[in-house]
Give the backbone structure.
Amino acid sequence: MSVGFPDFRLGNVLATSFTGTLSERHGEAVERIPTPHRLIDWLQINGLNVESCTAAQLDRARELREAVHAVATAAAVGSDLPKSAVQIINDCSIEGRAAAILTAGGNRLWRLSSPARVEDALGVIAADAISIIAGERDGRLALCASQTCQAAFFDTSQSRTRRWCDMNTCGNRQKKARLKAAQSRSAESPN
Ligand SMILES: [Zn+2]
C-alpha cells in the first residue's frame, strides 16, 4: 500500500482501467499514477511485473494513456479516430516484447522480456486497447454519463446500458445527487 497517494479504480478491462488512472478529466482531475513507483504498483496489480520505472517511462505511459483515452472516446461516439493518438498506440504495441504464457492451471500470465521494460507492459496495454477499439471483444465502448468524468469504458453488461465508468464512484455520486434533489423537492412542497 502506498499511503498518501490516490487509490486506483480497478476495472476488469486492462486498457480502460489504465485510462482510469487519470479521473475526473472534465472536473478536478485526479492523477492516480503521480510517480514512477505508482505506475509500478498499478502494473503489478494488473499482472505486469516491472521492477523499475524511470521518469521518461512514466511520461511514455501517460502518453499512451491519453492516446487510448482519445481514440476510445472517438470510437465510443463514432467519430474519426485521431491519427496521432492511433500512431502512439501502434508504436507502443510494436515496441512491446511481452509473451503470453499459459499456466498449468489454464490461466494466462504475461512474461516481459526484462523486468526493467515498462515498454513491454505498455505494449500489452496497447494491444488490449486495439482489441476493444477494433470491436474484437464482446462489449460496447461508451462514455461515462458523469459530466465531470466522461471516461471511456467498455460495457460488457448483458443489456449494454451501463451509464457510468465505475458504479462505486461516478454511479454512486449520481445516485446520491438524485436522492438529495428528490429530498429537497419534497421539503419544498410537503403534502
Ligand atoms: Zn465516470
